[in-house]
Design brief:
The complex is a heterodimer of chains A (about 350) and B (about 400). Chain A is α+β, with helices and mostly antiparallel strands. Chain A has helices at about 25-40, 80-95, 115-130, 185-195, 215-220, 235-250, 265-270, 295-305; strands spanning about 60-70, 75, 80, 100-110, 135-145, 150-160, 180, 230, 250-255, 285-290, 310-315, 325, 335. Chain B is an alpha/beta fold. The chains are: A alpha+beta (about 350), B alpha/beta (about 400).
Chain lengths: ~350, ~400
């Protein structure tokens, strides 16, 4: 991100739109970067005004993650593509039990995208990053012709440091381990769906989009040997647990009655023909830990504002076929499977 | 928007299950067919078969609209969707159903056809209003439940003088399908082992209960119209068991909170006005069934996509290894199919029963597992029969 020389006039945020010159490397691009991105994300590393950020590596093992964001609509109840681009990548770094420190951000902008909306997205990113205690230290902007993108796509990369000791990993679930979730499932997916044109239904439901580093820090303090941490985003709890079962070579048994789901999410899912266990979350974490640590971990989660509805929902079992099985509230059983196909495109 | 928690009460479910176990006589079997794919889905999602004693067996019927649509009709849909001026509107369930030549609506969309997923006919109507320079075609599928909304869309389009909206009509009729199963050659020979039918509650909300009278009387078969909550299905099974124990063959209405005996007269009138019964329609798995489907009446020909975008119907044989036809007739269980779970999975379905979550194969797939899962009771039911090696 480079800015040179004085700009003739300030960026016309209120009325203006992105045009091809904003990605062309000239003054217009420099102005966009300086007046919008650098001003909003304000930190000394970004302020170096180079195409890179130079800083000393922190001590410890580095954790890196990257994620692209294309959610539609970009403004949804409880968040927007900007806050989501921060939360999503911060959370992916946290899932190694790590402390996220820095983000990079790459923007693909569509010609004609209102600068007012871009400013709103960027402000939301800045606010989310500040709240999560991470800094956005370098970035990139490209503009594509009208119709070749949809407003704005954002890619963020997160850098953090892991704690000393064993790192939570998807291949460490062991038979007997307890399976916990930090709260109600499906809120994000249903909140986004509810604001889609053609589907719109009235609900007060908000996306759960949130940075989980505070919660995960408290969890790591309470139960230092958490075997697995993962945020159940696309594909929901079902996909996340199936991934872990396959990675670890185990099965899982869940209790339907223990799984926290809001009644309005159940109702919307019934209406739309979806299973809440397949619906995306953006502010929840699944934790798998030795059974003797489960009570302490649950207490720590419930004591945190983002974990008030946390619950132990099942256990890891020995199973060569890696089934995730659910005992229904009726005492029947079913398989909790991966979602086939794509029911909810562009949910994040 | 709240679900109906009373209908998902685990304790009530266990009491109903205990009543079923107590009243189902140990020395006979109760073969119960749930006609509707919606019921099949609820049975698997809640693991209801696990709650039934072994002599109570569930047999899945053909009431999954996605499953019974023949491949040839889907090919026609894709041909219509490929017209450059067309915006083709489909329910999401249809998108991945395999068509001829490894095609599907999803693939046609990727290749450039403008295909949109909609949740109702009214969404398609809104698209037509918003895109006056395009031709919007609604892919209408389903039984009597989804037919009135299609009729309403056509009537609205006619009233507003919309010239760019049409319907590719594939609506089918429930009574004709039930009769086709029970009147098959195998059934004539006494090989069809269905002792009672759980009737489709939503369909009945439209049609009224008289739709089942002829069938129930001629085959001396009890019918219980059921709602779609798991408690509804357990209670309906219990009501059928009571009827069978008393050797009654009546039409009872468990879903009285929604389905009135006479049905929805307004909806019936709209259907009567907009549609006419086809002489015959090809059903996947069941073959040609006379008077079993609807098309737009001549008065609404302007809104008929079949007349606006003429395509030829070609009957396509199912994949030779796929047992969907037998499964749809209740002849085979999904696990009898040699490609179930190997060549045919929800990720890459060969047959229609694996595509829709209402299909019997997808339901079995979800219930598979060490314990046999929630369809265990239904797997045992498969002996249902040689019903119809016949019907082929």
């Amino acid at each position: 991100m480079t800015a040179r020389g004085p700009m003739p006039r300030r960026l016309e945020v209120a009325e203006g739109v992105v045009d091809l010159s904003h990605g062309a490397g000239g003054r217009a691009m420099a102005q966009l970067i300086e007046e919008l991105f650098v001003a909003t994300f304000d930190n000394e590393l970004l302020g170096q005004n180079n195409d890179n950020a130079v800083t000393d590596p922190p001590p410890g093992r580095m954790v890196v993650s990257t994620d692209g964001f294309v959610v539609s609509p970009m403004f949804f109840p409880g968040g927007d593509i900007g806050s989501l681009a921060v939360h999503g990548t911060v959370n992916d770094v946290c899932m190694a039990g790590a402390t996220p420190l820095y983000l990079t951000a790459s923007f693909i902008l569509e010609e004609g995208f209102p600068l007012r909306d871009l400013a709103r997205v960027v402000a939301s990113m800045g606010k989310a990053a500040q709240a999560a205690g991470v800094r956005i230290i370098t970035g990139d902007t490209k503009v594509v012709e009208r119709g070749k993108a949809d407003g704005v796509f954002i890619t963020t990369t997160g850098i953090g440091v892991a704690r000393p000791g064993p790192v939570p990993s998807g291949d460490r679930a062991r038979p007997g381990d307890a399976v916990l979730v930090s709260g109600t499932l499906g809120d994000h997916g249903i909140a986004v769906m509810s604001s889609r044109p053609g589907i719109g239904f009235a609900t007060d439901l908000l996306s759960d989009s949130a940075a989980l580093n505070g919660l995960v820090g408290a969890m790591m303090d309470a139960a230092p040997d958490i075997h697995v941490l993962r945020d159940p985003t696309r594909g929901g709890l079902a996909a996340t647990l199936n991934e872990i079962a396959r990675q670890s070579g185990v099965g899982m048994q869940l209790q339907e009655v223990a799984i926290p789901i809001r009644p309005e999410v159940t109702g919307a899912c019934d209406l739309l023909g979806l299973d809440p266990l397949n619906v995306a979350n953006e502010g929840k974490v699944v934790a798998i830990c030795p059974p003797e640590h489960a009570a302490a971990l649950l207490a720590a989660m419930r004591a945190h504002p983002l974990g008030g509805d946390a619950a132990i929902i099942g256990k890891v079992v020995d199973d060569p076929e890696h089934f995730v099985e659910l005992e229904t509230s009726f005492g029947g059983r079913r398989i909790v499977d991966w979602l086939s196909g794509e029911q909810l495109p562009r949910i994040c | 928007m709240k679900p109906a928690p009373n209908y998902r009460d685990g304790a009530l479910a266990r009491r109903l299950a205990a009543a079923i176990a107590a009243r189902a006589l140990p020395d006979r079997t109760y073969n119960i067919m749930e006609f509707c794919g919606g019921h099949t889905h609820v049975i698997s999602a809640f693991g209801l078969a696990d709650l039934l004693p072994p002599q109570v067996r569930l047999v899945h019927g053909p009431g999954c609209p996605v499953c019974v649509l023949p491949i040839g009709r889907l090919d026609q849909a894709i041909a219509i969707a490929r017209h450059p001026e067309v915006i083709f509107c489909s329910f999401g369930d249809m998108m991945r159903v395999p068509a001829s030549d490894r095609g599907s609506l999803l693939k046609a969309k990727a290749q450039g056809a403008d295909i949109r997923m909609v949740y109702s006919s009214l969404d398609a109507l809104a698209l037509a209003r918003a895109n006056p320079d395009r031709q919007v075609v609604f892919f209408a599928i389903g039984f009597e439940t989804t037919t009135p909304p299609t009729a309403a869309a056509v009537l609205t389009a006619a009233r507003k003088g919309l010239r760019n909206f049409s319907v590719f009509c594939n609506h089918v009729l429930t009574p004709a399908a039930i009769e086709a199963i029970f009147a098959s050659e195998a059934a004539q020979r006494g090989e069809l082992r269905v002792d009672g039918v759980i009737g489709p509650g939503h369909v009945t909300t439209i049609t009224g209960i008289s739709a089942y009278r002829a069938f129930s009387e001629s085959h001396h078969c009890p019918v219980v119209i059921s709602g779609f909550e798991p408690i509804d299905l357990l209670q309906s099974a219990l009501m059928l068991i009571d009827q069978l124990n008393a050797q009654r063959a009546e039409i009872e209405n468990q879903y009285a909170r929604s389905a009135r005996p006479e049905g929805n007269r307004t909806a019936q009138a709209m259907m009567e006005q907009v549609f006419e019964v086809r002489d015959s329609f090809d059903w996947r798995g069941l073959g040609e069934i006379p008077h079993s489907a609807l098309r737009l009446a001549d008065a609404f020909a302007a809104f008929d996509a079949e007349r606006r975008f003429p395509t030829e119907y070609r009957r396509i044989a199912d994949h030779p290894a796929c047992s969907c036809p037998d499964i749809l007739r209740g002849v085979k269980k999904p696990t009898d199919c040699r490609i179930f779970g190997t060549g045919c999975t929800p990720e890459s379905p060969v047959g229609a029963c694996m595509v829709s979550p209402e299909g019997a194969c997808a339901a079995y797939w979800q219930a598979r597992g060490r314990s046999g899962g929630g369809m265990a009771g239904t797997q045992r039911a498969s002996a249902v029969g040689s019903l119809a090696r016949a019907a082929r």
